[in-house]
Write a structure and sequence with these properties.
- By secondary structure, the chain is an alpha/beta fold.
- It is built from 12 helices and 16 strands.
- Strands 5-4-3-6-7-8-13 form a 7-stranded parallel sheet, sandwiched between helices. The chain has a 3-stranded mixed sheet with strand order 14-11-16. Strands 1-2 form a two-stranded antiparallel ribbon.
- Helix 3 crosses helix 9 and helix 6 runs parallel beside helix 7.
Length: about 375
């Protein structure tokens, strides 16, 4: 009620219309009408984040806890326990943690049925350590189907899914638009495609439901939270910091200018910004939407090395191999739809990502 009072006081203004002759017209804004139009965008929401202790989920919690009621659902492990402790320091008493396996739908239902969830951010993924096996694809599909049953029981009609650019596979043209035929090359990409199909089917059955699949390109960086991943950009940072002596570049036989593959690197804060923008989008739209989240700028492996050398002023030693590669050669986002539908655009660049990674502890 206090928020409403402050906002109404702020917008209780009079508009004077230009005088015509000796007659001046004065109008008073209908305050209650204005409140009715804009209050949905100002209202605090109850948001459930699955995979809430993961990379994207935990960063979402830190940002959204400032203005929404946050429920984090995940399974505690040695790694997750450290993230939970850090979240309790960063946003104390600003979220509720639910230690439960999403596959246990009965227990999940009993925990969240009184929370009056308005929206779900689905960031949970079943995988075996860093690699995803073929059997994990079916587990991820089953996990979503169970989540959809909860959505129906609790009448939740707003849903945002952390999908991936891996759904596209090899692209003949770049940048890649959302209309490109899906051809995932990895088990991880195939899993994301199956989940998107389940969401599309649910939207077709329930006309009040809005689901947004954010196809995230190569997300990197940390903000307040510290995650160590075994990927190329982290490995480059480790060489700069002296943790590794040399960077191995697995393949130089790609059809690119320098023979190394090209990726679209986007900072985690820009990705979180897209999720944040999706909240209002789901309130005012119905149906299924796929939206690319990337910078629209391609960076080869050697470009990445050069960027880290420039910001660190250190030489990065690397050795390139000419082994055949099954990696996608070029993956760059056409992000025009995100700009149009969400009013979103990236605010950081590769230099910022490099500095950000070097400032954080990497092991």
């Amino acid at each position: 009620m206090g928020k409403k009072k402050d906002i109404l006081s702020f917008i209780r203004v009079q508009i004077t219309i230009i005088s015509v002759g000796d007659v001046a017209w004065r109008y008073l804004l209908n305050i209650e009408w204005v409140w009715a139009q804009f209050s949905p965008y100002l209202k605090s929401m109850a948001i459930l984040i699955t995979g809430g202790l993961g990379y994207i989920g935990s960063h979402l919690a830190v940002t959204l806890a400032k203005k929404h009621d946050i429920y984090l659902l995940d399974i505690l492990s040695k790694e997750n326990d450290a993230i939970l402790n850090l979240l309790n320091k960063l946003i104390p008493n600003k979220f509720v943690f639910l230690n439960v396996d999403l596959l246990n739908s009965d227990k999940v239902f009993s925990l969240i049925q009184t929370c009056k969830i308005d929206l779900i951010f689905h960031c949970a993924v079943v995988r075996n350590q860093e690699a995803m096996r073929s059997c994990d694809v079916n587990k991820n599909e089953l996990l979503l189907q169970k989540l959809m049953l909860l959505v129906q029981k609790l009448n939740i009609n707003n849903f945002v899914f952390a999908s991936s650019a891996a759904v596209y596979g090899h692209a003949a043209l770049a940048p890649i638009s959302e209309s490109k035929q899906l051809s995932p090359q990895s088990v991880y990409g195939k899993s994301k495609v199956l989940i998107e199909k389940v969401l599309l089917e649910h939207c077709n059955r329930n006309l009040d439901f809005c689901a947004v699949a954010l196809r995230i390109f190569n997300v990197a960086g940390n903000e307040a939270l510290h995650f160590n991943h075994s990927n190329l950009i982290q490995n480059v940072a480790k060489v700069v910091k002296g943790i590794h002596l040399i960077l191995d570049i697995n393949s130089t036989d790609h059809p690119t200018n320098d023979g190394t593959y090209i990726r679209d690197y986007i900072h985690i804060t820009d990705v979180i910004g897209a999720f944040d923008k999706s909240i209002n989008f789901t309130k005012t739209n119905k149906g299924f939407f796929t939206i690319n989240i990337g910078t629209g700028i391609g960076t080869s492996v050697l470009d990445l090395v050069d960027a880290f050398e420039r910001v660190s002023m250190k030489r990065i030693n690397y050795r390139a191999h000419k082994d055949p590669s099954f990696d996608v050669s070029i993956s760059i986002a056409d992000n025009s739809l995100a700009k149009k539908l969400l009013g979103w655009e990236p605010k950081t660049d590769l230099s910022y990502i490099a500095l950000n990674l070097l400032e954080h502890n990497i092991q």
